[in-house]
């Protein structure tokens, strides 16, 4: 394939991809006016945070800790400290959703995206996500920068059902 054709393919293909918002970068993810319910929760309101979890992200392609358990109904403030030199991000989702998104990022490394459940963190900086876990289940978080997810830059979030909830 000629370079020009390849470029056209790269430019055209993202337009056919479904529903990924390509917005401007923000240092902090906050709840938009109308928060969208996802399978893994909904944007949280800072005033309703009842727990803060601090994570480190490093150029070793790891999050520490990489295993989290929260209770259904909790609103968590994730404070993500970036101690490396590369660009990293934290994205929360279902394992399936993150795998698909990572595959897309591998094809289009410069793709910009911004949602309440993700934060991009520049080297030496700290980012935040405020997320309300109103769905029980097994979820993941990951860095979807091309190659990072594949290198193992991911972790799990287990949301245990609210006590007393009917099963
Ligand atoms: Cu990364």
Present the secondary structure layout.
Elements: H1 3-12, E1 28-29, E2 42-43, E3 51-58, E4 62-64, E5 67-71, E6 75-82, E7 88-93, H2 95-107, E8 118-121, E9 126-132, E10 137-142, E11 154-160
The protein binds copper (II) ion.
Shape: globular
Could you state the order of secondary-structure elements as H and E? Answer: HEEEEEEEHEEEE
Instruction: Write down the CATH topology.
Output: Immunoglobulin-like
Tell me, rounded to a whole number, the average pLDDT. Answer: 85
List keywords for this structure.
167 residues; mainly beta; Immunoglobulin-like; six-stranded mixed β-sheet; five-stranded mixed β-sheet; 2 helices; 11 strands; 35% strand; disordered N terminus; binds copper (II) ion
Q: How would you describe this protein?
A:
- This protein has 167 residues and is mostly beta strands.
- It has one domain: Immunoglobulin-like, CATH 2.60.40.420.
- It is 14% helix and 35% strand.
- The strands form two sheets. Strands 1, 2, 3, 4, 6 and 9 form a six-stranded mixed sheet that branches. Strands 5-11-10-7-8 form a five-stranded mixed sheet, covered by helices on one side.
- The chain starts with a helix and ends in a 7-residue tail after the last strand.
- Copper (II) ion binds next to loops.
Q: How would you sum up this structure in a few lines?
A:
The protein is mostly beta strands.
């Amino acid at each position: 394939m000629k370079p020009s054709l390849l470029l056209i393919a790269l430019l055209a293909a993202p337009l056919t991809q479904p529903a990924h918002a390509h917005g401007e970068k923000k240092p902090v993810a906050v709840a938009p006016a109308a928060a969208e319910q996802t399978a893994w929760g909904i944007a949280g309101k800072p005033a309703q945070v009842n727990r803060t979890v601090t994570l480190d992200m490093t150029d070793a392609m790891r999050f520490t800790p990489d295993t989290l358990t929260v209770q259904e109904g909790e609103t968590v403030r994730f404070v993500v400290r970036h101690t490396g030199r590369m660009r990293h991000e934290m994205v929360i989702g279902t394992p399936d959703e993150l795998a698909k998104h990572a595959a897309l990022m591998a094809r289009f490394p410069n793709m910009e995206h911004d949602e309440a459940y993700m934060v991009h963190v520049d080297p030496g900086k700290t980012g935040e996500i405020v997320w309300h876990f109103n769905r029980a289940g097994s979820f993941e978080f990951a860095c979807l920068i091309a190659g990072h997810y594949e290198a193992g830059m991911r972790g799990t979030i287990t949301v245990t059902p609210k006590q007393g909830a009917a099963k």
